[in-house]
Amino acid sequence: MIPTFVIFLREGIEASMIVAILLSYLSRVHQRKHFRDVWLGVAAAMVLVLGGGFGAFFLIKQYEGSNVQTYFETATYVLAAAVLTGMTYWMHKHARTMAKELQARSDLALSKGTRWSLGVLSFQAVGREGLETMVFTLAIVFASSRQAATPVHGNLLLVGAALGLLVALALAYAMYKLGAKLNLGKFFRVLGIILTFFAAGLLADAVENIEQLGWLRLGDHVMWNSSGLVRESSNFGDVLHSLLGYAERPTIMQAIVWVGYVSFSIVMFVALSRDHATRRVRHEQRALDSGRGRRRHARQQGVH
Fold first, then answer.
1. How many domains does the chain have?
2. How far is CA 25 from CA 57, 61, 130, in A?
3. Which structural domain, as residue segments, surrounds residue 127?
């Protein structure tokens, strides 16, 4: 429940931001007649994502218990971790310029004079978020085998997703209709840190699958057995496994991959934060110098 809540909250906020930016810009340039095109693009993206997600899940269920399922699950874990990493760092660098980029693309679409251009723009933007959500959800379902295996736990995944989406829509409404302020940079940084541990757990699950297939023998020695303390099949163990990649019998290679990924991500976060702070200081210094220059020029003009 917790992983799907976090994923749908983050992706829901980002998708809502994209739609809100497009609609507010169209309203500002007196092009509200194109609202319908934006919503059609959003609807088409959601249909494609939902169809693809359900199709992929039920297709792989046909191979349940076979190596084909293990291959697909492993690929999904690796893909989800890679996309999650890329999107987290991309948002960290581009959150401040996203609105300008979307507005520029909207101007280009409007200049073409075709109704479907804005629909394609919203389809691409929202569809990307939807595909990311689909990959992450499939990874969560596979990683939470016990949750997905029973109606109660399967429903908890749906409840988490629904709650995350509802909270995201409520925040988006509050921000763009009621004037509430949310520090989006800090918001995405906090969720990025949480999802870093989730991605590390997915990579550890991928290593476990590869070891079970017999493809990796290096570091496959089990370090400990904590099933007496927290069983992986218990409710609490299932949550820890889904969110952090907890394993009751972890191997050396799983631990190396988990610790290595988390350490790398923390170093990257710190480096990006310092770079962002440095750029902000330089920008403020340039603005200050420019203001001083204008005032000096004005004084000189006054003297003459």
1. 1
2. 38, 44, 22
3. 2-303
